[in-house]
Amino acid sequence: MQPITAQQPDGYLNKTPLFQFILLSCLFPLWGCAASLNDILITQFKSVFALSDFASALVQSAFYGGYFLIAIPASLVIRKASYKLAILMGLALYIVGCVLFYPASHMATYTMFLAAIFAIAIGLSFLETAANTYSSMIGRREHATLRLNISQTFYPVGALMGIVLGKYLVFQEGDSLHSQMAAMNPEQLHAFRLSMLEHTLEPYKYLVMVLVVVMVLFMFTRYPHCKPESNRTSLPSLSETFRYLATNRRFKRGIVAQFLYVGMQVAVWSFTIRLALNLGAVNERHASNFMIYSFICFFLGKFIANFLMARFRAEKVLIAYSVLGVLTLLYVMLVPDFTAVYAAVFVSCLFGPCWATIYANTLATVENKYTEVAGAFIVMAIVGAAFIPALQGLVSDHLGSMQLAFGVSLLCFVWVGCYFWGELRHNKLRRASGQLAQEAL
């Protein structure tokens, strides 16, 4: 008798194991929580360490730089062992990074905080490299993009929880930090800064407890290998894989699109709280509400996109999202009142389906035997979030206008829209040539 869940020769399964898929999808909010806490830290560090917009954005550079450096080693673990082992290693390293916030909060140096954030990113690189590809593989091939979009729908839940934890555990009641610190003498200022930095430890205490529970569940849950049969006997060398990927034009376009998309998303989120502080008389705790609204919009955008992509071609849905995104960011740039903050919130609706769709489309352009390393390269494209927010911060410092600096994100959205337009044209040509071939037969 054939087992209920059987692996196909290409590594995909004939049926998705529900419990394993749900547990795997629970990893997505875990890195969403860490990523959104960065937006809290940027605002806190900006005031406490008296940083420029560029320097405060280095939080994202440390975080996403870790993804870039570790994605290939993570893919080698998957290649030689399993997706499950890479996930367990990622969870363990994530826990270590959270624990490092304890000495960082007491040493009270910006460099030590960046080191702790980088350590968390190393763990998350293992998790994302494994979980994104695994989610697309753990079921029938034709549903790979939908499956990854469903898993990615869990991401904003974690991101929302990260902002809520930051709002109530890191930010405090009262006037904004800048206003409070302006009235203090040097001794009071030093004590106040130490107190504010100690608050940054609190969310990570709760994260460690959740991570330990998830890690235990993964240790005792059986998972399929989901590796193509050809991969088990004759793995291509890394140099051969690199040469293959370097000549794959659609794969390279997908990498660039992912680089710019992730950078744009993180840049908008990194500066939404700051935009609210600049345009309205609010404190950090109140301004963080706009990030809560952003992640609710992000979730709704994913949900709506899943519904639309079940009825229309994914590329058409994403082109429409991109056009609306460009117009919304143009409003953020040019309208000099508080409604620009609400526009920055709304644009999160339009981010929703981009990551998963670009990831699945790009992975589908490579042969099965190159899947693990190709997936790592797509995760490495997350390094866009190390560059684009820093660039937007630099533009903000240079122009003296945070609103105009959102033009950096606008240009990224233009490119993403062009990518999906190119994918739509490619698929139309492929279908047309397929029809001609059938008619010739």
Automatic annotation (TrEMBL):
Membrane topology according to the record: Multi-pass membrane protein
NCBIfam families noted in UniProt: fucP
Organism in which the protein naturally occurs: Duffyella gerundensis
Subcellular location: Cell inner membrane
Transmembrane feature ranges: 21-42, 54-78, 85-104, 110-132, 153-171, 204-223, 259-278, 290-310, 317-334, 340-361, 373-395, 401-421
Name used for this protein in its record: Putative MFS family transporter
Keywords assigned: Cell membrane, Membrane, Transmembrane, Transmembrane helix
Molecular function GO terms recorded: fucose:proton symporter activity
Gene3D superfamilies with a match to the protein in the record: MFS general substrate transporter like domains
